[in-house]
């Protein structure tokens, strides 16, 4: 499975209904399961981003469908990052010339 990190910021709509954020997170987990995305962690954070998620999915297309579906709900803007562990990074470095 491929790992991803999602950085999310509340929209105006999302902050107006912030008291629902934990319920929305549960709904996002369900949505992920329906699309084949495992939401591993959800953290509410201080700073530029309001929420950080860690995901696992089969490929980028599944995660893109997930991200578009979450964004269409209107509560957050997201930025998705592909994440590599040390073993994967070592393999990448091994391909360098």
UniProtKB/TrEMBL annotation:
Keyword line: Plasmid
Protein name, per record: GYD domain-containing protein
Origin species: Cupriavidus metallidurans (strain ATCC 43123 / DSM 2839 / NBRC 102507 / CH34)
């Amino acid at each position: 499975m491929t790992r991803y990190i999602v950085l999310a910021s509340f929209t105006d709509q999302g902050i107006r209904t912030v008291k629902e954020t934990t319920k929305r997170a549960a709904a996002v987990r369900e949505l992920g399961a329906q699309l084949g995305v495992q939401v591993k962690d959800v953290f509410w954070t201080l700073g530029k981003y309001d929420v950080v998620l860690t995901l696992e999915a089969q490929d980028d297309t599944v995660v893109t469908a997930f991200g578009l579906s979450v964004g269409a709900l209107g509560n957050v803007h997201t930025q998705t990052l592909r994440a590599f562990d040390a073993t994967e990074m070592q393999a990448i470095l091994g391909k360098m010339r």
